[in-house]
Design brief:
- One of its GO terms (biological process) is response to oxidative stress.
- By secondary structure, the chain is mainly β.
- The chain has one domain: Beta Complex (Metal Binding Protein, Guanine Nucleotide Exchange Factor, Chain A), CATH 2.170.150.
- Helices cover about 10% and strands about 35% of the residues.
- It has two helices and eleven strands.
- A hairpin with a 5-residue loop joins β8 and β9.
- The longest helix has 9 residues.
- It is globular, with a radius of gyration of 14 Å.
- The N terminus is likely disordered.
């Protein structure tokens, strides 16, 4: 693994060793988990959701909301620089793909139908995330 300009670079073999087959499919191949099947869909604990690929912080629990879409949803990331945005015109629709800005793991998509104050819905696969509880709430 090497880091260049604050980006993590791993070989395909390194990713396959680090991730489960499902994580690899979602994070490296842009797949998705089935709706309502992910570990964090109904998760309500206070803490921080990070990237499963590099552990960088992505979303705080206080920005999580129940969108009813079947995947964990957030109205904002921890920092605008934490997320990389790409146009995605696959499956006959125009969407904005979101990736971890540090290691470029596929997270999901962002949509303009979220709650105030941003009006955004970051729809994220649970397998793309790890969770660290807030020690102040335990």
């Amino acid at each position: 693994m090497t880091e260049r300009s604050s980006k993590m670079v791993r070989t395909d073999d390194e990713w396959r060793q680090k991730l489960t087959p499902e994580q690899y499919h979602v994070c490296r191949e842009g797949g998705t988990e089935r709706p309502f099947s992910g570990e964090y869909v109904d998760h309500k604990d206070a803490g921080l959701y990070g990237c499963t690929g590099c552990l960088r912080p992505l979303f705080r629990s206080d920005a999580k909301f129940d969108s009813g879409c079947g995947w964990p949803s957030y109205w904002q990331p921890v920092d605008d620089a934490a997320i990389l945005y790409r146009e995605d015109n696959s499956l006959g629709m125009s969407r904005t793909e979101i990736l971890c800005a540090h290691c470029e793991c596929h997270l999901g998509h962002v949509f303009p139908d979220g709650p105030p104050p941003t009006g955004l819905r970051y729809c994220v696969n649970s397998v793309s995330l790890n969770f660290a509880a807030d020690p102040d709430t335990e």
